[in-house]
Protein: peptidylprolyl isomerase
Organism: Candidimonas nitroreducens
Amino acid sequence: MNVTVNDIEVDVDAWPTPQLAAVHELLRQRACELGLLPDGAGEIEVERAIERTLAQEVAVPEPTDEECRRWYEANAQRFRSGDLVCARHILFQITPGSPVPAVRGVAEAALHEIQADPALFEKHAREHSNCPSGANGGNLGQLQRGETVPEFEKAIFGDATLGVLPQLVTTRHGFHIVAIDQRIEGRQVPYELVSAEVAAELRKRSEARALSQYVRVLAGGADISGVELDAAASPLVQ
């Protein structure tokens, strides 16, 4: 795939996606326009110049205490201490070279069988799970927040569901069939103890929105071929 930004060809092989490669080139060119990047600069200098460009041109508003309190109240379940979940799982592992659609298909077929007859969970865990817990019927014991990967934690602590979860849980390790056997509620952590964490989360979200808008503006004024980027015709509002 040939990707160009303002007639400069971009090496997309060095990036996870062509879009990211094009965005990086947009930012590099903007750093040059601002006089922050000399000719012949090396990779480290380019990254530092891009950081200075973003710091100079992208304003990230600080969240107010009122905004933080509203977000805390809307997401109160994220700020609990001592919540415990007794869970079992069956892991269908993804390894380099694994045929992902095929693995997912096997996992979904097993999930459908278990939903029809939950008593089959232990049998499937012993026969198919790629986790050592499979030898114990998939039993993970009691889990608390912070003990599993974020994707798995979100699935088991996201609501009050008991029994076999209706969908596969996808993590960096593969596809999981998960059963929740018991929930032991902890206590709500007061806003005052997590206000800094809430502010940091809102600041991160605000920064992501501001950067996205900034990139769209740059894309709107650039000649880009070989890849689609959202473009904004209006100027960036700082």
